[in-house]
Every structure is written in structure tokens, then in C-alpha cells.
Amino acid sequence: MRELHQRLKSLFPLGELTEQRPDLGFVTVPAEYLRPLLLQLSDREGFTHLVLLTAVDWIEDGQFQLTYLLSNRGAARDLGVRVMIPRPANGLATMDGIHDIWPTAATYQRELREMFGIDFPGSPRVDEEFILEGWIDKPPYRRDFDTKKFSEENFNHRPGRETRDPEQYMKQQLYPDGK
Amino acid sequence: MKPELMKRMVKGPDGQEFEVEPLRDYYCEAAPTVMPAAYIKIVEDFFNWARSESIWILGFGTGCGAIEMRPLMTPRFDAYRYGVQWRPTPRQSNLFIISGYLSVKTLKRAIRSYEQMQSPKYVIGLGSCTINGGMYWDSYNTIKRLDDYLPVDLYIAGCMPRPEALLAGFMDMKKIIRAGNAEGANKYAENFDWYKANQKQVIHDWDMPDYNW
Ligand code: SF4
């Protein structure tokens, strides 16, 4: 993994390598170098399989982190490529799609468009509804979306629901005299 | 609304153009009506006895609870010995088990399936999710009270209830039917506007007819 990192580092401005396991590492790369890096990985380094594409909302930093997890089946190792992109407070973030390298990416991109509000212009059917139907609020995986509030406003609740702290409750049940 | 549901001109194979309005042409618009009981109580009781002995379940699993229906269909718990069986289509079934959480998207399908079932029809809510939201009580995407959207005859509590609980539920369901209290379909017809209003309150892209059997 290290040696692969060294090799790639001479070509791209890569960040530090985070090795989670001997066969799983993560690197960060500026958004404009993502495509050449992915092409290099898939065409030259044997990382031919896109395992997943997902996002993390770093709301405090005003950024989205996109993680492209690639797998090299022959060498049995995985490499995650992380990209930080700006996160507008309202409206869509934008990123270039990679569906021309891996057609399966189009599905992930549709999901990200719907759940995080990250647009991938030109990606097939990216503007269509994916999982949600008739969604009316901001993308639900954004961290400033308050799921509890939304649920309280939108759905009828049955009264009488109680919540207890499990630790306190069990203590009371098992040791009622407080010992 | 989806483009395929919109009114449009269609050209037939013979070159003739004609207008298609899917919501009117393909579905029935009439609201459901209350089905009166038989002319004399003893006959109605006989009907109810017969109904209670042939519970046909719609094989439609909505949440995690659907997993518990599989062992029921197979020899270990074998619900068939109680005259309970699963059917593949709504037209052939009279019991709809909502087996857990219902996302808004599934609710839409559940409503359509329920409406396509023949009366008299019954609904069982399986698991805490159908009762008060269960562990999905603060989810952005699931309903919390099933009985606001469909007439529920019986709830089976648990997360998830074991097949034994379901078997006990079937026995209770039979008692309810035999006592003549399983009037869900009539309740639905009577309070049709209320149910529709509740359904439309959560389904924001209502793109089906109001009643579509
Ligand atoms: S009640 Fe529990 S098992 Fe059933 S659908 Fe809800 S979470 Fe799943």
C-alpha cells in the first residue's frame, strides 16, 4: 500500500495515506485531480472495481467529503479516494460525475443528488426521484435537516409514548431500595 | 404527476389518433360503498364463521416483520393447518398484514393493494412500528399510526413479534371475525374522506386515482 502511495504521489498531489488495514487505505486528493487519479488507478494499477461512492457532511467546515472506494481484486486490496468539495448552505453542491469510467457510479450519483443534494451534471437520470417520492424538504442526509422535527410536523403520533433512560430504569427495577 | 398518467393523444397501430386519460380510463373512480350485513343474523353469523375459517393473506411484506411470515408458511410453524394461507395478489386475499414500518412510498402501494382487495377484508398491524412508530418514531420517512391510513382490526405488539405471536393473532382475528366485529372495509367506506385526507397529508405526490379497485 505504501509503495503504491509513493508511486501515485510522484504523479498527483496526494495527501497522507491512512492505512486502516494492510489491505485498506485512504488518500485525499484535490477535486480537480480526481479523474486522472481514478483513471490511473483503474487502467494502470488494477483497481478496476468501484465498490461504493458515498458522502459525509462536514457541516462545520462547509464541506462535503466524497469517498470513492476502489478495489483491486487481483491484489485483494481496497483504496478509498477522498475528495472535499464546497458545501453551499442552501442549494446544490456540484461535482463531476465518474459514470463514464464506471457506469454503476450513476446510481450512487442519483442517490447522492437526492439524499445529500450533490449534483453530478450529465449523469444519467440524476434529476429523477430515486428512493424518496414526493420529497418536500431539504435533502434528508444533510446534517442540518432535523429528522425528528420533520417527523413531528408531518406524521401523526400516537400519544402515550414514554422514553426512559435504560440505565436508570433497570437500576430502579432491579434495586428499588437504591443499593 | 408522472407523464404516463397524464391525459394525452395516442396513435393506435391502425393510424387512428385517440385521447387517453389514464386516471379515468384505466381505473374506477367510484368511492367504495358500505356492504350491508345479510338479511338475518344467523346467516350473517354463518358467513362470518366461514370467513374466519378461510383467512387468505396478501403476500406483501413491508418492513422487517415480514421475515416472520416465512417460517409461518413453512413446516415449522405451518399456519396452513389453521386455514390460513398466503396469496400472491390482492384480488385473492382478504387479510392484509402490514408487517412493520411503512415508509411513505410503501404506504402508497399498501393503500392501492388494500383497495384492490375484495370485501370483507381485514388488516393486522404487526409490530410496534405500526402501532406508534416503534424504533422509527423519529424517522423522516415512515408513518407512525397505521390506523390513520387504513382500518386496522388487530395489532400484534413486539419488535418483531415471533411467529407464535402471529399464530395467536390469527386466533384472535378469527374471534373478531366470528363476533362480527371485523368491519374494517365498511369503516373505510364510511370514513372514506377522512382516510383519504390523512393519506394525502403524508403522500405529497398523489398520482393515482382516489379509489382504484
Ligand atoms: S416493529 Fe421492529 S421488527 Fe417490526 S418493522 Fe418495526 S423495527 Fe422492524
Structural key phrases:
heterodimer; A: 179 residues; alpha/beta; Beta Polymerase, domain 2; 5 helices; 7 strands; extended; B: 213 residues; Rossmann fold; three-stranded parallel sheet; two-stranded antiparallel ribbon; 8 helices; binds iron/sulfur cluster
Model description:
The complex is a heterodimer of chains A (179) and B (213). Chain A is α/β, with parallel strands linked by helices. Chain A has one domain: 2-Layer Sandwich (Beta Polymerase, domain 2), CATH 3.30.460.80. Chain A has five helices and seven strands, in the order αββαββββαβαα. Chain A is extended. The N and C termini of chain A lie far apart (55 Å). With 213 residues, chain B is of the alpha/beta class. Chain B has a single domain (42-202), classed as Rossmann fold (3-Layer(aba) Sandwich), CATH 3.40.50. In chain B, 34% of the residues lie in helices and 13% in strands. Chain B has eight helices and seven strands. Chains A and B meet through helix 4 of A and helix 4 and helix 8 of B. Iron/sulfur cluster is lined by residues 63-65, 100-101, 127-129, 134-135, 159-160 of chain B.
Q: Please count the helical segments of chain B.
A: 8
Low-confidence stretches of chain B: none
Count of the separate structural domains of chain B: 1
* CATH fold type of chain B: Rossmann fold
Summarize model confidence as the mean pLDDT of chain B: 90
What letter string, H or E per element, gives the SSE order of chain A? HEEHEEEEHEHH
Bound molecules: iron/sulfur cluster
Within the largest sheet of chain A, what's the order of strands?
Answer: 1-2-5-4-3
CATH homologous superfamily title of chain A: NADH:ubiquinone oxidoreductase Nqo5 subunit
Radius of gyration of chain B: 19 Å
| Form type of chain B | globular
Q: Total helix count of chain A?
A: 5
Question: What structural class do helix, strand and pairing data of chain B support?
Answer: alpha/beta
**Percent range of helical residues of chain B:** 25-40%
Model regions low in confidence, pLDDT < 50 over at least 5 residues of chain A: none
Specify the helix fraction band of chain A: 25-40%
Mean pLDDT of chain A, nearest integer?
92
**Record field, number of beta strands of chain A:** 7
